[in-house]
User: What shape does this take?
Amino acid sequence: MKICLISKYPPIEGGVSAKVYWLAKALGERGHEVHIVTNALEVEIDYREKLDLHDPEFIPSNVYLHSTNADTNPWHIPFSKAYTERIANLAIEVIEKHDLQIIDTYYILPYAISGFIAKNITGRPQILRHAGSDIAKLFASSAYHTLFKTIFQRVNKIITIPAFEEMFLSLGISDSRIAYDEKVSVDTKAFNPEVSPFPLSDYIERKIPNCPIITYIGKINYYWKTKGLYEFIEAVKGIKRDFLLLFVANGKGLLEFKNVIWKNNLEKHSIFIDFVPPWRIPSIIKLSTCVVVPEREFPIQYHTPIIPREVMAVGKCLILSKELYNKGCYGNLTDGENVLLIDPKNTKQFRTIIEDIIRHPDIASRIGQNTYKFSRQIENFNEYVDSTIELYTSLLKES
Assistant: This one.
């Protein structure tokens, strides 16, 4: 099968980019030809992963990358990056040149819109996948609502979650054109307890102390306080024992957050490194004593990060907010057995949990071992890839 996948891709950071990477890699390994059409090489520095474009992991077997280039965007008034138009132009060229059969688009702006243009010009069927943010934030805006609705009504298939079913049905979309992404899974060939720890000393110029490492992975942008990071700092600032906070992070709020670190005299306990590509995340997790995901009162209701599942697949201790515990599969975890649950606003409780981990790292080891057992019950990456191929096959038969 020959697939045009229009979406985010490394070096763009984030969950959508990582999901596309792992899916494209798996499809390529199955012998399918996958052409990624993206604007990834134009991503701004704040949200760019640090990677070597010559790294063999960057473009896996049978995967081909086609990215827009800022230098090819002629000056015009008023100036814009014109991502939608340029990605659509590139997609049409790639589809026609390589005779691609199907268009799969992930994230609506600009990718699904570009894909919709390409669909109508090339006649290829289109799949639209969305995240929580592009529905709750963008579709909810009058600036995009009418356009998004029109595209929803005309694509061949929408991949969503059950919570959005009624919304799509209310737009006149038949249930036969709606499918669910419930089989999305972590690739356990990459995320498993046997991976090697990340060589942190190669990335920084200071000596790495031999002490527990508490890791946070993700964006620190303009709403970083809803991610529980302020409470995280409040929780650790009074701890006297040796520990290291590792932040694999960047974003518009990074400097403000670093100021909080400095004001609380935690700079000696903190290391910041740039975003790393998806294939480096397993080793980051392996290096960590525990990974903290303290998200609370997040403005996107159906935002469900996959980082906790990646932590579980590597068999490491997960410190998870109760808000996320109530989302997805996480509610099947058991506090104190295979996860450590926190209410980030209860900084006393937060501090107690982290201090226990620092004093008794064997607690983290036990939690990690148990969470790996749980992960083995829920992850089935091959089934996820199989279902994707079945989706493509059925759509091509209908077209």
